[in-house]
Amino acid sequence: MYELSTRDRNWSTAAHLAGGLLMFLTPSFGFLGPGLVWLINQDKPDVVGHARDAFKFQVAMTASIWLCGILGAATSCILIGPIFWLLGFLPWLAGIFAPLRAAHQVNNGDRYGYPITGHDAARLR
Hints:
Layout: H1 6-25, H2 32-40, H3 45-74, H4 81-87, H5 89-107, H6 119-124
């Protein structure tokens, strides 16, 4: 169990939910919600930690979507482009559903680590 004040828990939950909602509505701007929560709560280290993780995850998902789109456009002349376009839906779905799980766990008082935020890479050094 991980103790947060009610206000910090609400802001942390909002950081995760804002990323998922914006990823659903505008797949290229899912990082704006967590980024805004991060800027508003710079003096609260627990909220900043959640917002930073959500921000990094949404940036990674946005980059993956764009990469699949670019590869799809570049390879559409050899008929494998649609495969990349379909693969672009996977990070979009992850950008929607992983924040829902994160918000649920944070709201229950647990810490959530996104599968792709750089924590694993930092541990390898």
